[in-house]
Amino acid sequence: MTTEALPDRSDPLVVPDSQHHVGLSIRGQLTVLFSDGETLDCADVKGLSAVRSSQDVTTLPDGRPRIAVTRLMTHFHSNETGLLIQQNPARPNLGILTGLEPGGVEALLPADVVFEQYLIISLRGSLYLNLDPLVMEAKGITTFPPVGTTFLSRTPTTFYDVTELDGGLHATSAGDAKPRLALASTSVCGSHVTHEIPSG
C-alpha cells in the first residue's frame, strides 16, 4: 500500500487550477450591531470555506503575476448565539491573488489576496444580506491554501433584511430599505485559516 505525498503548499506551482477546503475561526470578538442599538457579542464563531483558483495567470504592467480565485462556499456559526453566516449563492464571491515580485507562475507566492464576499446572515428567525461587498484581505501569504493566515476586513459591513429588499437574495440595491444590522469588532476581527480539510 502506497501513500500519496501531500503537495508542497509553499510551491507557487500549486496555485493555478486548484481547489481546497479549509477550517476557519474568527480572530477577536465578532459583534452584531442592530439598528435599534442592541449589540450581540459572538466569541465562539467557527466555520468552513472552499476556494477554487483559475488556471489562467495574467501579468500586471509592473510584471507581477495575478490569478483569479473564486470562493465556492462560506460557512460560519456560533453555538452560543445561533448566528449562522452563509455565502449568498445569488452573487459572485470573487477574489484576486497577486504575486509580490515580477515573474510568471513561479512568482505567485508570496502574494497578497483580496476577496469580495456577499453573505447571508441567519439570526433570530430572519435573514440579512449585504449589498456592498465585504472586502477581506491577507498580505504576504506564503502557502496556498494560506493555513495560519488571518484575512482582515477593510471596513464594517451593513446588512439588510431580505424581506425588505426588492429582489430578495438577488437584490443589488437597497431602494427604500434601511440597514438592520452591521458586523463589527471590539478588537482585531478576521477570518483565520486554521487547517486544510483533505478532499480525498
What are the salient characteristics of this protein?
single chain, 200 residues, mainly beta
What does this structure look like?
The chain has 200 residues and is mainly β. 0% of the residues lie in helices and 50% in strands. It contains no helices and 15 strands. The chain has strands at residues 19-27, 30-34, 39-42, 46-59, 65-77, 84-87, 94-99, 111-117, 119-123, 126-129, 134-141, 150-153, 157-161, 181-185, 190-197. It has an eight-stranded antiparallel barrel. Strand 2 and strand 3 (39-42) form a beta hairpin. It is globular and about 50 Å long.
Number of strands: 15
Mean pLDDT comes to 88
What composes the largest sheet?
A: 8 strands, antiparallel, barrel
Please work out how many helical segments DSSP would assign: 0
From the alpha-carbon coordinates, what is the Rg to the nearest angstrom? 18 Å
Bin the helical content.
under 10%
Q: In terms of topology, how is this protein built?
A:
Blueprint: E1 19-27, E2 30-34, E3 39-42, E4 46-59, E5 65-77, E6 84-87, E7 94-99, E8 111-117, E9 119-123, E10 126-129, E11 134-141, E12 150-153, E13 157-161, E14 181-185, E15 190-197
Antiparallel strand pairs: 1-4, 1-15, 2-3, 2-14, 4-5, 5-6, 5-7, 6-9, 7-8, 8-11, 9-10, 10-13, 11-12, 12-15, 13-14
